[in-house]
Design brief:
By secondary structure, the chain is an alpha/beta fold. It contains 16 helices and 9 strands. The chain has 2 domains: 181 residues, 3-Layer(aba) Sandwich (D-Maltodextrin-Binding Protein, domain 2), CATH 3.40.190; 155 residues, 3-Layer(aba) Sandwich (D-Maltodextrin-Binding Protein, domain 2), CATH 3.40.190. Strands 1, 2, 3, 4, 5, 6, 7, 8 and 9 form a 9-stranded mixed sheet that branches. Helix 8 packs parallel to helix 16.
Amino acid sequence: MPGFIFTLLILLQSAALSAETLTLLFWEDALAPEVITRWQQQTGVNIQQIHFDSDEQRDKLLSQEQFANIDIVVLDSSMTARFSNKGILDHLEQEDIPNNRYINERWQQACGDNSVAYFWGTLGLIYRSDKLNFIPDSWLDIVQPNADVSGHIGMIYNKVDTLLPALLANGLAIDSNESDSLMVAYQALTKMPILTFEYPLTFIQSDPRADDLHIAMAYSGDQYSLNESLQTPGVWQYVLPDEGSLIWLDCLAVLSSSKNKIRAKQFINFLNQPEIAKINALTIAVATPNDAAFALLPKRFTADESLFPAQVTLDKSKLNIDISVESTLTRSRIIHSLKKQHELK
């Protein structure tokens, strides 16, 4: 993506011109505009965002020297230890982020010592209620789709997430390291009539086939982003399949290469002021790990089971999974093969 990389370089070079600019490597629509405005009014420090739409893309960007001006990155909790061990993340002390005390202990433990819990949710299915004549409730609805769904399926391209529907649909563990289980998932995935492996928000905003996407893997809260950007209230809906899934947890970390570490830590602390965290959660429509902010949220929001599933539902899902190095390599080969086959069709 030469144009994409060139644009990022220009942004980073301009950010480097001002010591009073923080550069964030974030998911798209992961930070409320009002929160940015309040921060800039209080501190005079600008916020520059660079967006990624897959873990692989984020990791690739972080590995390139020209992106050394990034100050803060959002990581899934399963990756924080790995990045810390590589020396990529700066260490965080309690006095650096005093508002960390508002974070629920469960979520903060999962993020570890070098990052702060930001948002959490589940991995499930989004679907167009105006296109499907049923409400999907199983991963089988995309692994073994009916004629109406066939060819209208979106998958997430990720060495963990991509295999998840096929593993769970076949009664297998999502964190399986067994080659036989992975082969079962691979064979099931090769038979799926997939429209795209692109993240649904990106696909719908940029691909001429956007109207052909009727159901897709997505993260809780994505339905609100889609409906807002497309001005289609209630059309996109979200469901967590009966077999369970993953619980995702995004963590905020300061890069050890950052030249604005003090400001970066101040910004993370600012995000965890209860009122700010409340605004952020409501605007982005994602669950907050901040207990003090949760107490400020309206009941109509906290009662939304797509964002805050019942505990019996969460019990079927896993927060962090442990995949062996060998399994990681096998999974990477599988998803690369699947995408290659898809592109040749």
